Structures are given as C-alpha cells and as structure tokens.
Amino acid sequence: MFIIFSLACAISSNINMLLAFRFLNGMGVAAISLNSSVVGDMFSQEERVGVLALINIPALTGLAVAPIISGYISQALSWRWVFWLSAIVGGICEAGFVFIFREPYKVRILKKAAQR
C-alpha cells in the first residue's frame, strides 16, 4: 500500500487527491506496528532484544531526519520527488524483505514440508 499510494501522491493533480492519497499512504505505514510480532515469530527470546532495537532504528530516526531530507529534496527537485524517492526506497526495501526474510508461520512451514 505504501508504494502504491506514494506513487499516487507523486502523480496527484490537485490538493484533494494529494490529501486523500497521503492519508492512505500513512495507512500503509501503519503495518510497522507488526514489527514486534514478526520479530517474535522469527527469532528466539535471547535474540529478540537486539533485533527489535535494529528494526526500530529507522522508524525512530526517520521521524527526525525525514523532514530535513524531504525539505532539501523538495527545494532542489520538487515536492513530487519526495514521493517518487519514497516509492523507490520502499520498493527496494520490499524486494529485500521478499528475498531475505523466511516464512515465520509454523503451520505454513509444516504444510510446505508435508507437500515436499
């Protein structure tokens, strides 16, 4: 959702479209609340503390750094490039997640093993 609505924000033609797509873009980011659950499924109890710290660093530092970076990007290029770059970086991260993360759901893992 984040990538799709970032692209929609970049190509919006009026303020009403931008506001609606930006709202939906924020709803796509709400999945960050699932980070603890994903880490809990994928890592042992001893490993969770370090992994949770690492996975939450971008979310916490982004709140401070993103407005500064976005301000420079919008002055140098245009406000649309803020959304284009968000979609590009989000797409790269999503591709990384697809190829790096393993399936944490035990039922699905057992079904795949039984099918093999």
Automatic annotation (TrEMBL):
<dbReference type="Pfam" id="PF07690">
    <property type="entry name" value="MFS_1"/>
</dbReference>
<keyword id="KW-0812">Transmembrane</keyword>
<dbReference type="InterPro" id="IPR011701">
    <property type="entry name" value="MFS"/>
</dbReference>
<dbReference type="InterPro" id="IPR036259">
    <property type="entry name" value="MFS_trans_sf"/>
</dbReference>
<keyword id="KW-1133">Transmembrane helix</keyword>
<dbReference type="InterPro" id="IPR020846">
    <property type="entry name" value="MFS_dom"/>
</dbReference>
<protein>
    <recommendedName>
        <fullName>Major facilitator superfamily (MFS) profile domain-containing protein</fullName>
    </recommendedName>
</protein>
<dbReference type="GO" id="GO:0016020">
    <property type="term" value="C:membrane"/>
</dbReference>
<feature type="transmembrane region" description="Helical">
    <location>
        <begin position="23"/>
        <end position="43"/>
    </location>
</feature>
<dbReference type="GO" id="GO:0022857">
    <property type="term" value="F:transmembrane transporter activity"/>
</dbReference>
<feature type="transmembrane region" description="Helical">
    <location>
        <begin position="81"/>
        <end position="101"/>
    </location>
</feature>
<feature type="transmembrane region" description="Helical">
    <location>
        <begin position="50"/>
        <end position="69"/>
    </location>
</feature>
<keyword id="KW-0472">Membrane</keyword>
<feature type="domain" description="Major facilitator superfamily (MFS) profile">
    <location>
        <begin position="1"/>
        <end position="116"/>
    </location>
</feature>
